[in-house]
Inverse folding.
């Protein structure tokens, strides 16, 4: 059989190619450009090879920020994912309670990042904030502006408040898609509550959970606005996460070379983690199917 | 295995039922004998699934009791009743292998692994799943998944009853037949009490020793396939069972005969005795198999009902003639060699197979 070859179809790809080039590839190439050169002005620039990369990768402050970031992101995931699943499991399945809880849960998601920061900045203050005042009233000396642990916890609680709803809504959607017959069959089979969760609910939530975990990983790994508004990265460097570190380097100190080099590393870390996670989870389900 | 008694059982999905229409199941007394293979036959929405879910305990009836071997289990949850149920669409545990799926109901009850293994392999053997035991269940096709569901229903050997809720809906026709025979085989071997819900009469009649026909939330007849065919207790049973179904006509009783659209149909004394005590809407029913159609020369001088023949369908092993007189349309089943000559003929009703119904209930 003769195949008809018509390469004109490739022209249809051109618009997409241009859009992707302008929106992603060209800006990214600019960053690559900065990361391997020392640029003073358009005429004065020197190729420095991997010098910037070596510099940022051996920067102690960056190591600290990276560790803080990893601990923070892991905490966010470890709290929000189980909590989200747990809340989704307890939500009503019918009646007026469904819409009421949907609206309540969606509220935090609708609030702009910097407003969330402002809300918690005021909420956590010991003098005029309800939360901070109550905690101090209980006899706990709480001050997020001075105590680094308090600051770190406040940022964490803020994120949990802001984003757990996302996981809840995703899981709830996954749970709703399970036909009643599954629960009935499980009852007949004498399955325990745990077995129902483990063998029916969790597998059916798997795909939405993967999306949820990826979104929460990327977002929390790049968190910037809320801690910036709440603590400004302090006290000390207690809440300086990678984005803020990067911004300080690029905009504060105008070290564009190292900042660009670090941007690329940052980008690769996120890409790598997401890819590994996605591949592992998706392949785990496929084992034994053949 | 157990005998199941339904005592003045009724169910309504409304909290405060008033009229009969509010009931999904009208009050009924019913006994499922130990070791019987029953088919629960009826149209969609007649309460079959409701009844099944009440027996399995997924639903608590609003009235009456369910007894297993004389013990009241009405308030017990499904897992406490020791019952197996197979649903219309396959329910499998995606992340488990076929083996683990089959073992699941046993393991949940803490049965030791040796026994589990023996049972799983035995059932897998019966259902031709042995070669697939190590596979993940999610990669299988719909009918293999449903076979696993069937297997999960059969794997426990101590269940009071196995309930099937139209289990072969998603299976393709060839395999349907194979699985149905398998179930029959398993029933002959293990003698569990089986209740098989279906709206397909062929399925019901081939599977079951006894068929329970439901209509409008009521059990209208319980009987062997033959009884349902020969002696339908309700006009619904008449036309639901049989292909084509029973011919049913409005009639009046006068002068020792039944009159349908001005034509006289002779009745026996047995009929006349019984019908004289009845009031209400009287209908006459006869199966297409028990009618004789005479055409051409044979029809001349023959006494019977004169009809027009509107259609003759040759279905290979038999023919179906559609005849008409007045406003009544009557189907007649003819042998493959019987000839139909011309557009008109004479219908003869076999008196012993002519049935009279008052308000849809069999009178004689």
């Amino acid at each position: 059989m003769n195949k008809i070859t018509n390469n004109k179809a490739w022209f249809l790809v051109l618009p997409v190619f241009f859009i992707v080039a302008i929106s992603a590839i060209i800006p990214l190439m600019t960053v690559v450009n900065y990361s391997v050169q020392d640029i003073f002005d358009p005429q004065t620039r020197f190729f420095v090879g991997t010098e910037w990369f070596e510099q940022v990768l051996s920067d102690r402050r960056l190591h600290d920020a990276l560790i803080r970031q990893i601990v923070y992101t892991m905490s966010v995931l470890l709290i929000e994912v189980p909590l989200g699943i747990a809340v989704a499991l307890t939500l009503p399945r019918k009646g007026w309670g469904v819409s009421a809880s949907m609206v309540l849960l969606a509220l935090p998601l609708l609030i702009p990042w910097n407003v969330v920061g402002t809300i918690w900045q005021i909420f956590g203050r010991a003098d005029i904030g309800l939360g901070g005042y109550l905690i101090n009233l209980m006899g706990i000396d709480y001050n997020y502006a001075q105590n680094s642990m308090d600051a770190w916890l406040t940022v964490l609680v803020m994120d949990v408040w802001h984003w757990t709803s996302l996981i809840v809504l995703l899981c709830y959607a996954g749970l709703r898609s399970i036909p009643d017959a599954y629960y009935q069959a499980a009852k007949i089979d004498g399955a325990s509550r745990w077995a129902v969760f483990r063998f029916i609910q969790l597998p059916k939530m798997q795909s939405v959970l993967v999306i949820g975990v990826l979104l929460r990983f990327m977002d929390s790994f790049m968190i910037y606005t809320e801690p910036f508004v709440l603590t400004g990265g302090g006290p000390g460097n207690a809440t300086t996460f990678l984005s803020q570190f990067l911004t300080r380097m690029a905009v504060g100190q105008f070290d564009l070379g190292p900042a660009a080099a670090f941007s690329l590393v940052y980008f690769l870390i996120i890409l790598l983690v997401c890819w590994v996670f996605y591949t592992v989870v998706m392949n785990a389900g496929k084992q034994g199917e053949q | 295995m157990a005998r199941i008694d339904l005592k003045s059982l009724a169910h309504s999905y409304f909290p405060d039922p008033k009229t009969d229409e509010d009931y999904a199941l009208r009050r009924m007394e019913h006994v499922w004998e130990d070791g019987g293979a029953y088919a629960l036959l009826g149209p969609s929405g007649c309460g079959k699934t409701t009844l099944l879910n009440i027996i399995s305990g997924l639903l608590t009836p609003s009235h009456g009791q369910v007894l297993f071997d004389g013990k009241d289990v009405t308030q017990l949850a499904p897992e406490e009743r020791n019952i197996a149920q197979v649903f219309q669409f396959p329910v499998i545990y995606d992340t488990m292998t076929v083996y683990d799926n089959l073992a699941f109901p046993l393991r949940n009850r803490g049965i030791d692994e040796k026994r589990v293994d023996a049972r799983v392999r035995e059932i897998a053997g019966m259902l031709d799943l042995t070669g697939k035991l190590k596979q993940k269940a999610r990669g299988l096709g719909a009918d293999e998944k449903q076979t696993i569901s069937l297997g999960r229903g059969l794997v426990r050997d101590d269940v009071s009853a196995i309930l099937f809720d139209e289990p072969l809906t998603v299976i393709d026709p060839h395999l349907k037949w194979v699985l149905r025979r398998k179930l029959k085989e398993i029933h002959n071997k293990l003698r569990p009490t089986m209740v098989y819900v279906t709206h397909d009469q062929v399925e019901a009649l081939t599977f079951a020793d006894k068929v329970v026909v439901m209509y409008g939330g009521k059990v209208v007849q319980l009987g062997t396939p033959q009884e349902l065919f020969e002696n339908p207790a309700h006009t619904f049973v008449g036309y639901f069972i049989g292909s084509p179904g029973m011919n049913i006509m409005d009639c009046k009783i006068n002068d020792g005969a039944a009159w349908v659209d001005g034509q006289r149909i002779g009745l026996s004394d047995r009929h006349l005795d019984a019908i004289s005590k009845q009031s209400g809407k009287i209908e006459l029913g006869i199966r297409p198999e028990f009618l004789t159609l005479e055409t051409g020369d044979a029809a001349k001088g023959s006494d019977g009902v004169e009809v027009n023949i509107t259609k003759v369908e040759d279905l290979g092993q038999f023919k179906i003639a559609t005849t008409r007189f007045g406003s009544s349309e009557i189907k007649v089943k003819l042998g493959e060699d019987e000839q139909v000559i011309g557009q008109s003929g004479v219908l003869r009703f076999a008196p012993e197979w002519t049935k009279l119904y008052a308000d849809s209930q069999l009178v004689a």
In short: Chain B has two domains: 4-240, 247-362.
